[in-house]
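In response to reviewer comment 3 from the previous cycle, which asked for concrete evidence that the modeling workflow produces usable outputs, we include below a single protein chain processed end to end. The sequence was submitted unchanged, and the resulting C-alpha cells are shown without manual editing.
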Amino acid sequence: MRIFGDSISGNCLKVKWTADHLGLSYEWIETDVLKAATRTPEFLALNPAGQVPAVILDDGRPLAQSNAIILHLAEGSDLIPAAPYDRARMLEWMFWEQYSHEPYVAVARFQVRFLGKAVADLEPRIVERGKAALQRLEEGLAASPFLVGDRASLADVALVAYTREAEDGGFRLADYPKVQAWIARVEKALRII
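The workflow returned the following C-alpha cells.
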C-alpha cells in the first residue's frame, strides 16, 4: 500500500497511526500541501478532489478521505467495535469529527501555525465552534475512558489527531481535563507518543 500524506496533517496521521497500529506494510509518500503537491496532474489523477490523505491499496485501487481509509484498513480489527450499536456510535463520532470538529479546531491550528495568523485575528465563529467541539468531547468522555467504551476505536483515532494539537490554534486544553487525560490514553493505546 502507498499512502500519500502530509506529515503536518492530522487527517493524514490518522491513516498512518491506523496502519502502524494494525502492523500494515506501507510506503509513505510525503505530499506537501503547502507546496501545492496535491494540485499536480499526477496527484489529481489519483484523487480528483486534490486532497490528502489518499492511498493506493495493494490491489491498485485508490481510496481517499481519512475516515473512509481508516475504516477500510481497520475492518475486522479491534479498532472497530463488534456490537452494532457501538459500531454506530463510533461512526457517529467520526461523522461529527469531520463536520463539527475538524473544520474549526484544525482550521484554527492551520491558520495560526502554518499561515502565521494571530489567534486574535481568527474568525470568531471558528474559535467559538472550536471551543464548543472541545466541550462536546469533554462531556462525551464523562462516562468512559474512550469515546466508545473501554478501549480505543476509530472514533478516538479520528478525534485525537487534531485535538492533541488544538493549542497550536489557540485553544487551551487545560480547560478540558477529561480531554487531556483521554489524549494521553489514546496516544498510549496507539503508541503515538
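The first strand starts at residue 2 and ends at 5. We consider this sufficient to address the reviewer's concern, and the full set will be provided in the supplementary archive.
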